[in-house]
Amino acid sequence: MIFVNQLFSAxxxxxxxxxxxxxxYLVSRRRVSGFFRWLxxxxxxxxxxxxxAGIFAGFLAVTALPYLWLYHTGSLTCSGxxxxxxxxxxxxxxxxxxxxxxxxxxTSLSEEIFFRGFLAKRLARVFGTRPGCAVQGLLFGLLHxxxxxxxxxxxxxxxxxxxxxxxxxxxxLSQEKAEGSILYGWMIHAAVxxxxxxxxxxxxx
Length: 205
Known about the structure:
Elements: H1 2-29, H2 35-39, H3 49-72, H4 81-89, H5 93-127, H6 129-143, H7 153-177, H8 183-203
């Protein structure tokens, strides 16, 4: 049941965060065809594999200790269907499947569609590429603020800074190195989100 609930939650979130850019696309383009390419679902002619690997490694190096500090101090608690699955079943196929659905679909896919595929591109047109990516990153960081709400200023600044920086880097990768594709950011985002609960469950639960 935990896996089914996670799957349902992932589908709903992805549908909602896809519906908003889809409505924008319908109004602005007045057609349905080409929507997914417009979002960035295509391979870049020149793969940014090196940049993607560097950003992924940088995420792990820069964010590991701050996130562990947030968990260790109780500022960021581990909750949700992935934690429920681990607490109930340990390292079972059900737990692994729940983590994968959460990491690959609910968080990374839905957020890359909305923030990098839609929002960053619109903001880049208004403010320029890097300022637009920065504004988008700030909004992405603020989205994560409820995770540490009421825990104090330092946890709030930490979570906004970490997630906002990630949001900026993924938007920058898409805009400047991947020809507008969001596939590479999706892979990085998914990989980071697969690793994070594994680390939490192994060392903090």
